Amino acid sequence: MRRQSYSLKIFVLASILAFAPLGLSISNWQQVAVADDAADALNKCDVLASDPHDPDRNAAGVTNEQMVPRQAIEACKSAVDLNPDVARAWFELGRAYWIGERDKEAFAALGEAAKQGYAPASKYLDDVAAYLKGKAAEAAKDEFDPSIFQNPTFMTRLYNYNGPRVLRDPLILYLTGFTDKIGGPEPFFVSGQRCLPQISAQSTSILVQLGVQIGQSYMLEPQKLTNMVTLYTDQGGRDAIALFNRHGCDSAITRRIISNVNALAVYLNGG
Fold first, then answer.
1. Cβ-contact 159, 264 below 8 angstroms
2. Which candidate among 108, 146, 212, 257 keeps its CA 20 to 30 Å from the CA of 44?
3. What mean pLDDT do residues 98-127 have?
4. pTM score of the predicted model
5. What pLDDT is attached to residue 183?
6. Of 165, 205, 212, the residue nearest 184 (C-alpha)
7. CA-CA distance, 109 to 77, in Å (whole number)?
8. What would the pLDDT profile of 227-266 be if each residue is shown by its tens digit?
9. Residue 190 backbone dihedrals phi, psi, to 5 degrees
């Protein structure tokens, strides 16, 4: 039995050597097999994840909508494991991760491709960064952040205003500057947007009159009065622009603050 087993092994080995090309050892055959596997894996990754706009692609390419992320990730993960020095495979893996909403892994793979000098990966990273920045800006429109304003205390009061309360002169002066910047009958332009005035003409008139009255009633040295008026009206004007820059013309936050400004003006007018 042992002789038969030994003879079988000799027969198998002889058969392999007989069909092997001249000069190839068993080790060479193993290397050829690994190379074939690497090429097959890379080809599969190309087919499932190459970008149609990539000038260095090795396949027709698939659009974002056509890609099946799970399949592409599996294929390209195998491709980079077997071809770690092929930047294209890293790029395609990163693209598959990104479309599959696995952002952290996407940045790592795209970063490796870019590090290896693959230009499409650098371009893709720039596009992704721009997309994320735009997405963050859109999300910020729905979050009130007082820290972006010159006078965060006053803007917080305007945001949270819910009825009559004692209003001191600095806030009234601030409101005067606020309405002066974005009130009036004409549209104004902020960050490429054409915004229609949302503060009523009545509110603007009331606040301007109150600002004038404050200036006339204060028994301060002229320079001190000028400094105070300038400080708060300037802050109000800057914060009006900051509000529209950050939150746009028609966001819920903008509408809420403008509505509160109008309500305050009516209250200050004795309504």
1. no
2. 108
3. 94
4. 0.52
5. 76
6. 205
7. 10
8. 888 899 999 999 999 998 888 888 889 999 999 999 988 8
9. -135, 125
The DSSP element (H or E) to which 19 belongs, if any, is helix 2-19
49 and 96 Cβ atoms separated by less than 8 Å: yes
CA pseudo-torsion sign 255, 260, 263, 268: negative
Q: Are 186 and 192 in contact (CB under 8 A)?
A: no
Domains of the chain: 12-140 (1.25.40), 146-268 (no CATH)
Q: What was the pLDDT predicted at 16? A: 46
Residues 117-141: b if buried by 16+ CB within 10 A, e if exposed: ebebbbebbeebeeeeeeeeeeeee
β-partners of residue 189 are 194
Pair 129, 98: CB distance under 8 Å: no
Helix and strand tally (H, E) in the chain?
A: 11, 2
240-257 per-residue burial string, b: 16 or more CB within 10 A, e: under 16: beebbebbbbebebbebb
Question: What's the DSSP call for residue 167?
Answer: -
Q: What is the C-alpha to C-alpha distance for residues 168 and 105, in angstroms, rounded to an integer? A: 54
Phi, psi of 173 (to 5 degrees): -65, -40
> What's the maximum distance between 2 C-alpha atoms anywhere in the chain?
120
Q: Is the pLDDT of residue 174 over 60?
A: yes
Question: Rounded to whole angstroms, how far apart are CA atoms 128 and 134?
Answer: 10
In this predicted model, what pLDDT tens digit does every residue of 19-68 receive, in sequence order? 455 455 555 655 666 678 899 999 999 999 999 999 999 999 999 999 99
d(CA 251, CA 258) in angstroms, rounded, equals 11
- Give the span between the Cα atoms of 139 and 160, in whole angstroms: 20
Structure tokens at 190: 């902020």
> In this structure, what token pair is assigned to residue 62?
């698939």
> What percent of the chain shows pLDDT beyond 70?
84
